[in-house]
Amino acid sequence: MQLQERINAFVKLGEFIEQFSNEAIQKNDYVKHNDLFFDGFKHQLKLAEEHNGWFTPENIRFALKGWATSLTQDNLNTWLKPYHINAIKPKQVAIIMAGNIPLVGFHDFLSVLITGHTVLVKQSSNDKHLLPYLAKYLEYVEPNFKGKITFTEKKLDGFDAVIATGSNNTARYFEYYFKGKPSIIRNNRNSVAVLTGNETPEDLKNLSEDIFRYYGLGCRNVSKLFVPKGYKFDAFFEAMYHWHPIIDKAKYANNYDYNKAVYLMSEFDMLENGFFMIKEDDSYASPIATLFYEYYENPNQLKEKLEADKGLIQCIVSNGFIENEIAFGATQKPKLWDYADSVDSVEFLLAI
Known about the structure:
- The structure is a single chain.
- The chain is an alpha/beta fold and 352 residues long.
- The protein has 12 helices and 11 strands.
- The strands form 2 sheets. Strands 8-9-10-7-6-11 form a 6-stranded mixed sheet, sandwiched between helices. A 5-stranded parallel sheet has the order 3-2-1-4-5, sandwiched between helices.
- Strand 8 and strand 9 form a beta hairpin.
- It comes from Flaviramulus multivorans.
- Keywords: NADP.
- This is Acyl-CoA reductase.
């Protein structure tokens, strides 16, 4: 199978996914194999929502919209242009996927197959319904993918390299268990935003998307703010308020109530608005319904701190503050070439 054939297959997959990426699901008669797969994928969406309370229809649609947007001929060609892909010896690559947001492991899945390798997938139990079905669609679109995609719930065996994502604890286990294999091991990271006090209301409203999308469960979600000494949070809270219906979600509300009770009993200082709390804290990882913040006085010292802590940080959201920053509202809209942990997985796959 040539690279262009693999690209064409994923473009067709993107067209299939696009049908489900809006609130009103619309069947497109020009999409291949809809007669076999359209109704079945609607059922898989329902199963995913029922199985994981964090996977709301809105958040699943958001994830599908992102992939439908990415899987175009132009985007795939732009992503792959710097690489020399066709002259590789196919290997079997194992992927251990997280399950914190819908289809969170899809980029690894795509990267392995687009580079010409075979893939062995071990999914999280929290996100097990969508990808196997999309993989089956991919095999129908491009029969040469048959035999190159395997899902397993058993112990991984017979692979040549591994990409594994987990918590800090599981990452240490992965590093030990896979020490004899080429690997990419990912652990917990969080994203931060740097405010200067000059942000527009639109900037702050866009930031709310970085904070609340997927209930803050993704590594690209902003969980920590750096604000100038004396910063007043009035405009910030006003910009967050349109997310207030989030408190109607029982799982989110339970976390809000629990964390608020902990802070009150511990007599921690915090600010809250009925659905969201902010607390001054040095840590990067904040609980659900909570955002940590830290004051800074010297921008250069803050840049040095962020550089020193880069192994803990996935994204830095700001406007003209630092190199490689992410625009407000863009953390959950990564391009194909925005690699997790800044590790080029395609380069890794071409070198194994």
